[in-house]
Amino acid sequence: MRITFLVHPGFQSLDLTGPLEVFDLAGGYTTEVVAAERTPVESSSGLAVLPHRAFHDDPVDTLIVVGGPGTAEAIHDERTIAWISATARRARRVGSVCSGAFLLARAGLLDGRRATTHWSACRLLAERFPSVEIDPDPIFVRDDPVWTSAGVTAGIDLALAMVEDDCGAAAARAVARQLVVFVQRPGGQAQFSAQLAAQRPDRPGMRELQRWIADHLTADLSVEALAARTGLSPRHFARVFRDDVGVTPGSYVESVRVEAARRLLETTARPLDVIARECGFGTPETMHRSFKRTVSVTPGDYRRRFRSSVASR
């Protein structure tokens, strides 16, 4: 099976090398790096890669388009977009890593499909390509025959899933052990981003309320209490808040409390019941449910994964 990686000036090196190592370790694959010309292509970090070939018309089993800052320019390169479109038609499957999804979308390959990209670029992708159904949380999305992954190291997750699909779970587990990574990591992108859903409100009063909420996590933050602070009826407040912030008041309060708890889990050794009280959850059980709902991992799992070495002493 031939895996063809498309690179462009300003690509992110890990978007290429991570998945490439997965397929190499799995065995049974032929990998190649392709670019517009067979001349060195410099990544965003300065690492230059010499492609195996320039654009070609040969059969391709899997095309993977890598991302990086350079996609902002590559998306306007008509020759690159045309090659992606033509190659996708003769490939068994097509994938993207990180912002490589923008190039797939520009080629029309994501129209009407569910897709993801780096959490920080999901809103922009949705705005530029409204026909694409953007899901900001998954590590990768499979909408056959198109696969898209989240940012950077998520390309490894994508490649492992492809290996599992081709060669079975045992083969994917063997590669994951060699790379010392999860075959399927728990949780989604929300565990790495601050607040995926919330947006900065236009109304100064709502911005002030957001600041007040962050400073008073143990206060009564019900819709009724927050509405009273703004002088609005609960019904009107809930509607205005959702229109301005993009989420309901309850969802926003929960996300701020979870974010505060995440910081304490990362930087302190305080017990879970103490963190739950300080962040307004009341009980560890309530905090547990909120973490599972918003971050898809438990507070304990989150602490084990992200706690700093200083905090663990």
UniProtKB/TrEMBL annotation:
It comes from the Bacteria. This is GlxA family transcriptional regulator. Keywords: Transcription, Transcription regulation. PROSITE patterns: HTH_ARAC_FAMILY_2. Residues 207-305 form the HTH araC/xylS-type domain. Transmembrane segments: none annotated. InterPro entries: Class_I_gatase-like (IPR029062), DJ-1/PfpI (IPR002818), Homeodomain-like_sf (IPR009057), HTH_AraC (IPR018060), INH-QAR (IPR052158). It holds the Pfam family HTH_18.
